[in-house]
């Protein structure tokens, strides 16, 4: 039995509220159970220096966790003077996921930065961030379309993410913290609306897991991401 009493293939309760920021070109508040992430997309009429003159845009992301998003207060990274390795890894993952579904030349020489701030953490913060970041990005691109800045085919597809793991010998979908901290193996899956795989991050915590177990996790991920993609569509329709 899972701590949350969910079925092995059952997501946590997921909700997405769009347009939650007064100033950002795109935004949403996404909740995966008790994991809550605020995602905002900001448009800039510039690109990184290394992209100047190449006639294409850029999508990047920043990720952070508020001090009391967790059980005990964590020190703000800005006071340390540098982001942690975990933070850098997650924000690069979010950026890669979003760029996989954007036609960067059609964006023009512009940059969209998606900020993902974890308000409350209970496992799966990176997967919630990616799923919500796409909604914020969609809103930003819609804002640009209304001003004739871009055409309809800039955003080529959806992208969403979910975690899976082996908990008590059973493959399960969408791990919360209680499961993630005790899982025999866990993996994060990032996939597009067309079913393409953007990234898979998997780790065995105790003993190596088999190809058969990995295939079961992949099947769970496809099911869960399919449900998240439908929720994204409902949110932006």
TrEMBL record:
Keyword Transferase among record annotations: yes
GO biological process terms, semicolon-separated: rRNA 3'-end processing; rRNA catabolic process; tRNA processing
SUPFAM superfamilies: Ribonuclease PH domain 2-like, Ribosomal protein S5 domain 2-like
EC nos: 2.7.7.56
Amino-acid positions noted as binding phosphate in the UniProt annotation, renumbered to this chain: 86, 124-126
MF-aspect GO terms: 3'-5'-RNA exonuclease activity; tRNA binding; tRNA nucleotidyltransferase activity
Top-rank lineage group of the source organism: Bacteria
Catalytic activity: tRNA(n+1) + phosphate = tRNA(n) + a ribonucleoside 5'-diphosphate
Keywords linked to the UniProt accession: Nucleotidyltransferase, RNA-binding, rRNA processing, Transferase, tRNA processing, tRNA-binding
PROSITE patterns hit by this protein: RIBONUCLEASE_PH
Function: Phosphorolytic 3'-5' exoribonuclease that plays an important role in tRNA 3'-end maturation. Removes nucleotide residues following the 3'-CCA terminus of tRNAs; can also add nucleotides to the ends of RNA molecules by using nucleoside diphosphates as substrates, but this may not be physiologically important. Probably plays a role in initiation of 16S rRNA degradation (leading to ribosome degradation) during starvation.
Assembly information from the UniProt record: Homohexameric ring arranged as a trimer of dimers.
Stated family: Belongs to the RNase PH family.
Protein name (record): Ribonuclease PH
């Amino acid at each position: 039995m899972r701590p949350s009493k969910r079925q092995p293939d059952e997501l946590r309760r997921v909700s997405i509220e769009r347009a939650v920021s007064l100033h950002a070109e795109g935004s949403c508040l996404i909740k995966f159970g008790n994991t809550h992430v605020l995602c905002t997309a900001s448009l800039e009429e510039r690109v990184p220096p290394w992209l100047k003159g190449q006639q294409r845009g850029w999508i990047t992301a920043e990720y952070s966790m508020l001090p009391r998003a967790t059980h005990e207060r964590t020190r703000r990274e800005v006071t340390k003077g540098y982001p942690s390795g975990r933070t850098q890894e997650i924000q690069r993952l979010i950026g890669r996921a979003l760029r996989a579904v954007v036609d960067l030349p059609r964006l023009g020489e512009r940059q969209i930065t998606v900020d993902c701030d974890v308000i409350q953490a209970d496992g799966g913060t990176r997967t919630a961030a990616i799923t919500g970041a796409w909604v914020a990005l969609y809103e930003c691109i819609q804002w640009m379309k209304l001003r004739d800045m871009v055409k309809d085919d800039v955003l080529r597809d959806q992208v969403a993410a979910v975690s899976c793991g082996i908990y008590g010998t059973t493959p399960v979908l969408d791990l919360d913290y209680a499961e993630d901290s005790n899982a025999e193996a866990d993996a994060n899956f990032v996939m597009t609306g067309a079913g393409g795989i953007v990234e898979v991050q998997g780790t065995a915590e105790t003993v190596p897991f088999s190809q058969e177990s990995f295939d079961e996790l992949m099947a769970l991920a496809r099911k869960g991401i399919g449900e998240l993609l439908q929720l994204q569509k409902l949110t932006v329709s």
